[in-house]
Each structure stands twice: as C-alpha cells, then as structure tokens.
Write a structure and sequence with these properties.
235 residues, alpha/beta, three-stranded antiparallel β-sheet, globular, binds 6-phosphogluconic acid
Length: 235
C-alpha cells in the first residue's frame, strides 16, 4: 500500500487527476475504470474535465461505477448524475464507453444485469473481471463502495455485483463485491476531510472490522490519496 498526503483537498484531487492522466497516456489500450460515488470525487472529476479535458484521449477510457443508489439518473442522489454533471458532460467520450448502473431498475435485477455487462466488456481472470483502475471512497463508518459494516459478506461474494442496503436510510444500492474490487490492477482511495480522520486512523493501524480494511489488493497497486485533515496522525 502506498499513502500520499497533501495539504489541501484540491491538491489531493489534483494529484490523483495527474496520476489517472499518466495511466491513460502510458496505456496503449483502452482502460476500464470503475468510479466511486459520494461527494469527494466531484472535485477530482471537475479537475479532469477542466485541466485534462483536451490532454486525455477519452477514447482510451471506459467508465463503470463501483456502486449506485437505487434512484433514477436524474435524481440528486444518483452517482451517475454527479459524474455526468462534473465530468462526462464536459469531455469527448463515446457514449458506448459509459456503462452506468441503472438505479431506476429493480435493485436485484440490476445487480444481475450489471454483472453481465461487466463480464461481457471487462477482461476476466479466474472468473473475476479485472478493472484497470478502481476509485474508492470511505464512509465515516468504514464502508467502501456500498459494502457496509453490517454486510461484510459482500466482501466474499462469488458474484460480480450485489444488492446492498444502506444501514440507516434503508436505501437500496448496487455495489461491486469485495473480490472484484481486490482484483483491480490499481485501486485508489480518495479520502478528504476531518470527519474521516478517525476511521482512516483505525484502518491504517490495521483494524480489521471495517469493509475498507479488507481492500488489500495484495499483488496489485493500492494507494491512499489523503488530505492532511483525513490523514490525521498519518500526515
Ligand atoms: C457512495 C459511495 C461511497 C462513498 C463513501 C464516501 O455511493 O456513497 O461510492 O462508498 O465513496 O460513502 O462518501 P463521501 O465522499 O460523500 O464522503
């Protein structure tokens, strides 16, 4: 695991944007990239859509999502909507390279449909899709993607995607499962803000009771991009 700590949220997002840019430029093939939702990546996406709009050949990227809330794509809670507004609507990417989770569908059916889409379009190894880049956040409770602390079984699921339920709101979600996330070639956590300091401290100290601590990517590349506030004692 590599940890990178920056002074501000903007510098953290900018460093990750540069990293993603370099990955895409270096690659001589299409990269399959799974994006996280929540609020933190919005700044990263707008930097990519601004500074990197014309520098990146977007034909070399295909976008998927690590999770989606069970809402239509025009709902303010939709991860797709946030990504569309901050990134997709500003860049020249073929529509056929954008694989959104249909949050408007029945959640269980959609988990199955999306698993099939991924299996057909992303290279497979030992029955698991291999994403080139996976972007993740961490919730204050230690969840990542939509794998919550009371649904740890999703970390060992044999499926590609599963239905998840937000423990407080009861909102249904579709999420990639633990084995798929751990299979990613490069996995990036982007975590910013004071509210994350406590959970980051526990996870980086090796506390295993949180879903995010199980994202180990042992043989792969795992990075934590943190701002000073989230890094706390690890700054
Ligand atoms: C989602 C997520 C989720 C998110 C964390 C952190 O759809 O909510 O993908 O795992 O990354 O909850 O969210 P914030 O960036 O909003 O703190």
């Amino acid at each position: 695991m590599k940890k990178k700590v920056f002074d501000t949220k903007r510098k953290t997002a900018a460093a990750l944007a540069e990293e993603i840019y370099r990955r895409i430029v270096k690659s001589d093939r299409l990269l399959n990239i799974a994006l996280s939702g929540g609020s933190t990546p919005a700044l990263l996406f707008s930097i990519l859509a601004g500074d990197y709009r014309d520098k990146i050949d977007w034909n070399k990227a295909a976008f998927y999502w690590v999770d989606e809330r069970s809402v239509p794509p025009d709902d303010d809670q939709s991860n797709y909507k946030m990504t569309f507004e901050t990134l997709l609507s500003h860049i020249d990417i073929p529509e056929s390279h954008v694989f959104r989770i249909h949050g408007e569908n029945n959640t269980e059916d959609e988990a199955e449909r999306y698993s099939e889409v991924i299996q057909k379009t992303v290279p497979m190894e030992n029955n698991l899709p291999v994403f080139d880049i996976i972007l993740l956040g961490i919730g204050d409770d230690g969840h990542t993607a939509s794998i919550f602390p009371d649904q740890m079984d999703l970390l060992n699921s044999e499926k590609v995607c599963e239905k998840a339920v937000h423990p407080e709101s009861g909102q249904e979600r579709v999420t990639l499962t633990g084995p798929v996330i751990n299979k990613g070639i490069s996995v990036y956590f982007l975590v910013c803000g004071k509210s994350k300091a406590e959970i980051i401290n526990k996870i980086l100290n090796g506390d295993r009771e949180y879903p995010a601590s199980y994202i180990q990517s042992e043989s792969r590349e795992l990075y934590y991009f943190l701002d000073k506030e989230a890094a706390g004692d690890f700054a």
